[in-house]
Structure formats: C-alpha cells, structure tokens
Design a protein that fits this description.
By secondary structure, the chain is mainly α. Helices cover 49% and strands 8% of the residues. It is built from 6 helices and 5 strands; from the N terminus they run E-E-H-H-H-H-H-H-E-E-E. Strands 3-4-5 form a 3-stranded antiparallel sheet. Helix 4 crosses helix 6. It starts with a strand and ends with a strand. 24% of the residues are buried.
C-alpha cells in the first residue's frame, strides 16, 4: 500500500495486460461447460456463444480452455455465467434453465429466444441480455412495479415476479 493524502494507505492498481492465468482458464472452462449443459445447448450453439470453434468447444467440455483463451472469450464466459446465476436468483431452477431458449417478446429480443439473440449479436448481445436479466431485480425493488415476465412464458398465467421472488398467478 502506498501512502496518500493525509498519510492514509491508498491501493495501487496495476493496469491489466489482458493475460489470463491458467487457473482462471480452467475455472472458466468448467463454468462454461456447466452453463451449456444446464441450458442443453448443442455443440454448435455453445461454440458460437462462447466464441470458439467446435473443436475448441470439445476441449472446453473436457475441462480445458487452453492457452489460446482471449479477453473476448473470457468476457463471453463471464457474461453467460452471470446470466445463468442471475436467472437462478429470480426464477425456479426449471424456468431459469429454460428461459434462454424461450421466445421472448420483450426488448431487445423481439420474438427471438435469448440464445438466438446472443448468437447473432455476439458479446454485445450477451452483455445486453445480462443487463435485461439484472433489470428484473432493479425494477422489483419496494415501491417499484413488479417485473412483467410474460407473455413469452409457456404458462401465461404467470405474469409478474415480485421483490420477494414469488409469482402472481392469474385466472
């Protein structure tokens, strides 16, 4: 720690060089494989989403990301793992794992599934989908209206999710 104004310790940060450690790659590979399995992605879909060739995806599924992982691939994995985790915070496990494949009428998806949207748009779309998911919680805070999660849900009676995470069931 360096000394700053008034002799208080100040954290000194080093600029990132973009280098990814072997341990980070191994953890990322395992997380990517688990997300793909939970969402039941085909090998082709998973390769596109994670920004790798199908051959590289086969290695990732085996638990090794290899030395060629770049910052883009790590950001994709981070975004998709964050989306997975956020969905499981807001929805039941069954719905959380189905949500990415369901046609979604809300922006930015426009009647496409989040998977198709993210495959077509790459990293910006992955980050956008993650922001949409994180908006569920922000809009569900006390004093805010519940977040509408239909009509893309198979059961149109489930209309909103409240701050407590419970659902409102319609007639």
């Amino acid at each position: 720690m360096a000394k700053g104004l008034g002799e208080r310790p100040v954290a000194v940060f080093q600029a990132r060089t973009g280098a990814v450690t072997d341990k980070a790659r191994d953890v990322a590979a395992k997380a990517a494989a688990r997300v793909a399995a939970a969402w039941k992605l085909t090998n082709a879909d998973a390769a596109v989403l994670f920004g790798v060739s199908q051959r590289s995806w086969s290695r990732i599924k085996a638990g090794e990301l290899g030395g060629g992982a770049d910052q883009d691939q790590m950001l994709r994995i981070s975004g998709l793992v964050g989306l997975y985790k956020g969905l499981h915070l807001y929805f039941s496990d069954k719905l959380a794992d189905r949500w990415p494949e369901l046609a979604n009428s809300g922006p930015p998806f426009m009647n496409h599934s989040p998977i198709d949207y993210m495959k077509a748009g790459g990293l910006p779309a992955i980050l956008s989908a993650t922001l949409v998911q994180s908006d569920f919680g922000r809009r569900s805070l006390p004093g805010k209206a519940p977040v509408v999660v239909g009509p893309w849900l198979e059961d149109s009676r489930v209309r909103a999710i409240s701050f407590t995470g419970s659902t409102e069931i319609g007639k």
